[in-house]
Description:
This protein is α+β, with helices and mostly antiparallel strands. The protein is built from twelve helices and eleven strands. Among the domains are: 215-244 and 257-267; 353-389, no CATH class. Pfam families: Phage_portal (PF04860). It comes from Roseivivax halodurans JCM 10272.
Amino acid sequence: MVFHLLKRNVDKAPDAKASATGPVIAYATSGRVVWSPRDTGSLTRTGFAGNPVGFRAVKLIAESAAALPLVLQDADRRYDTHPLLSLLARPNSGQGRAELLEALYGQLVLSGDAYVEAVAGETGTPFELHVLRSDRMRLVPGPDGWPIAYEYTVGGRTHRFDVSSGAPAICHLRSFHPQDDHYGLSPMQPAAAAMDVHNAASRWSKGLLDNAARPSGAIVYRGADGAGGLSPDQYDRLVAEMEAHHQGARNAGRPMLLEGGLDWKPMGFSPADMEFQKTKEAAAREIAVAFGVPPMLLGIPGEATYANYQEAHRAFYRLTVLPLASRVAAALGTWLARFTGEALDLKPDLDQVPALSAERDALWARVAGAGFLTDGEKRALLGLPALPEPGRGEDDNG
């Protein structure tokens, strides 16, 4: 009896010290789906740098919008040369117009916010423009809720931009967010769940190839009466023949000669394995929809919503690129005009967009054939400034 008591004490495991909240946490999180973090930095890493569909969608929007030609005009004329046009053509020593605007559109699509800094000279007119990273900027609201400053933090050091008076040095562009008064909503947020599914399917496929990929088939040996096995010499000879005569690209399709009870059993992927590919394609289409890019332009298989590539390209410009570029150009023009005191309008030049050439030709033909309209009314319909009055040319001062 004493022996059994001692044995029971020896076999008893010592009490493990653990947090009392551990079981509560385990119960609360058990069975829940684990999603990636939803902050800007994490979404950029997982949805842009780590996802080919998100990367291509953002690049396609940013590059297409940045490539649109811009026109600057006021109520009387369209400018061929202007200091603001020169500033946009060469915004700083390290970037041209396309690079600056691509970074601007990229930040706006990735985070929902974009910030442009104007470096003013002695006369107060900006001579440099810089796009600042959205994840480093913080808005400081005033007592009335409107921003009075912006704080840009890098490596523990913060610079404060005061925008409470005069022409602000920061232009804040943001997407519509129904539940935030100061920051915009990025397409990355509604697309985050689809990106997690797409990334998980890619990791599963990689893991399948690394750890559990199914071979094309198996060689089964059946001895006399279903018993027995290959001898070591027979096994080594079979492996050598397989490597020499039936593996590699040069042996593709070569017939196999089996003897001595050997039988070939082809193998393939199960329906569950094939279903993962369909799930991945569905997630890719959801990502494309969130960004407003026709899936056909991203090369997603099985997408035939549009009759042809040209129609998808036109829809992409009309529904995604032009609304974004028009809003950004208008905001930039209004902000830069505050430094010069002029009433200027900056907008994309739709007449130079190749994707809209068919619509442009049809519009010009309709306007030109409308004989009941005056030349001034026709120019207004085409978005052109009015002609100078007779006897008062642009160079006429009296």
